Amino acid sequence: MAQYTKHPVAAPPAAPERESTGHLLLRGYIGLVLFATFAHSAVYNLVGEIGAFITLLVFLIATLSIGVPMIARRRPAAFAWRRLPWAAVAYTALALLSIAWSQWRGATVITWVLLATVTVNALFIVHVLTWHEIVRALASAFKWILGLSLALELWVALVVHAPILPNFFVRPDGETNAHWYWVRGNLVDGGRIQGIVGNSNVLAIICLFAILTFGVLFAARTRWRTTLALWALLAGYFLVRAGSATAYVCAAAAAAVLVVALLMRRAKSPGARTRLYVLFIGGAVVIGSAVWLLREPLFALIGRSADLTGRSDKIWDKVLARAAEHPIFGNGFSSPWVPFDPAFAGWIEDHGITVFHAHNMWLDVLMQLGVVGVVLMALAYLSLLWRSWFFAIDRPRWDLRSDREYSAITLLPSLFTVVLLVQGLTESTPIMLWGWMLLVLLSFKIKVVPLVGVGERERVIERGERSRRVP
User: Fold this and answer.
1) Residue ranges of the chain with per-residue pLDDT less than 50
2) How buried is residue 231: exposed, middle or buried, by Cβ count under 10 Å (0-12/13-18/19+)?
3) Spatial separation of the C-alpha atoms in residues 382 and 91, rounded to whole Å
């Protein structure tokens, strides 16, 4: 039972402030947006390509309906136009302009709408949520993906006892290529699992993002730490069962960056940081060279070929050949490749399925938007990498005081960025859908609010969205 003094000077205790119902609904909506973006392939497998496209359009309309009046109402805290991630915005504009010279104009229009939808949603999230709320929204989306993946895998393995196809189509008679399945039902028999997203590599990367997010929240001493640990264990189990070599390499890179960032935080002087930079950059060069020279036995050790499972000869050579046709401004934007467009249908196939992207984000951008697009994409990612790194290692400071505690939240952007950059060597997802959302969201948020929990933008959100309290 609570005890408090009855001294006439002391104020009676008050209940902690609660968020307004409107802000709670807003956070729930953003969690749904993040879920639909990260699990877009699940939406695609459930309602088909047209249904998935309509779903994103509905979210775009809903976001504009909520965001435009909100920005108009907050005149003192007008949208931070000057701090937009301009390299990413320029890339989006170039993608739109490429309709004029695109070799696949219909695909460019369709995929640009997807790019614009993701960009608008990312900018909206930055404008209405604080750093802590963004991380919690990401955690909620990952929990839903993990929970539904577990439920679907259990249902297929224990009830259906057979693989299922997208849209729950009945499996045809005769031999069916395993790559066509949504879920193969391998949860019990020990094979690679796909989860609700229907792809082992995508599931593995999402699990890695989930582990990093849960770990940061755990280190930040949020509530329900035991529950976070259990979710992290489930994500780790799925990461192992997905068996993605790319995800393993991304996890190793993220672990290395985390160690370096923590050591940088402990450095007492600029000289100590300089020595650490020399040590780790030199070590990275040596390790990278050794991996390149020993790539064949190393890839064989993890069950992969030295040509990265046929990427170099089956995909990359053809992409480079097409990129050479229009090297400056490219052939036209299309991320992902639209499989029913004549330019892509049957162009590159893997196990009888038209490939959706170049399996290397830099080659993909080069083919689509040429050297100009590669430069803009490099500027966007280098800007995010630079800002996120110092966001992670610099002690929070806005006055003469220099002994404030670090926030665990500030580690997350740099870890996510490194994962995206490493994944981009063998996948193109960092330039589309959730990869692009993370790029825009993190770039914009760090520029608008370079200190977690501090700054006019965070205070405006707190005042504007929590002014109406639930009685």
Assistant:
1) 1-2, 4, 15-17, 76, 464-471
2) buried
3) 14
Secondary structure of the chain as H, E, C letters: CCCCCCCCCCCCCCCCCCCCHHHHHHHHHHHHHHHHHHCHHHHHHHHHHHHHHHHHHHHHHHHHHHHHHHHHHCCCCCCCHHHCCHHHHHHHHHHHHHHHCCCCHHHHHHHHHHHHHHHHHHHHHHHHCCHHHHHHHHHHHHHHHHHHHHHHHHHHHHHHCCCECHHHCCCCCCCCCHHHCCECCCCCCCCCCCCCCCCHHHHHHHHHHHHHHHHHHHHCCCCCHHHHHHHHHHHHHHHHHHCCHHHHHHHHHHHHHHHHHHHHHHCCCHHHHHHHHHHHHHHHHHHHHHHHHCHHHHHHHCCCCCCCCCHHHHHHHHHHHHHCCCCCCCCCCCCCCCCCCCCCCCCCEECCEECCCCCCHHHHHHHHHHHHHHHHHHHHHHHHHHHHHHHHHCCCCCCCCCCCCCCHHHHHHHHHHHHHHHHCCCCCHHHCHHHHHHHHHHHHHHHHCCCCCCCHHHHHHHHHHCCCCCC
pLDDT given at position 163: 84
Asked if residues 109 and 99 have their Cβ atoms less than 8 Å apart, the reply is yes
Which pLDDT value is given to residue 467? 44
pTM (2 decimals)? 0.88
pLDDT given at position 9? 53
State the residue for tokens 């985390």.
258
Q: Distance (Å, rounded) from C-alpha 306 to C-alpha 169?
A: 36
The pLDDT score that the predictor gives to residue 61 is 93
Give the pLDDT score at 287.
82
What confidence score (pLDDT) does residue 48 get?
A: 83
pLDDT score recorded for residue 455? 53
The token pair at 129 is: 């949520």
* Residue linked to tokens 């040509």: 307
CA angle 276, 278, 283 (to 5 degrees): 95
